[in-house]
Specification:
39 residues, 56% strand, single chain, 3 strands
């Protein structure tokens, strides 16, 4: 994934993952975006 610090306390994270299970029970891939403050 990609993690970017915009300043001393704010982080933006983007992660992409693909499943190893090919039966498509829960989907094949996922994209996650996280916005967090660090204290």
């Amino acid at each position: 994934g990609l993690h970017i610090a915009l300043n001393e306390n704010f982080i933006v994270a983007a992660d992409y993952g693909r499943a190893l299970d090919k039966e498509k029970r829960d989907g094949l891939s996922g994209f996650y975006i996280g916005l967090d403050f660090l204290f």
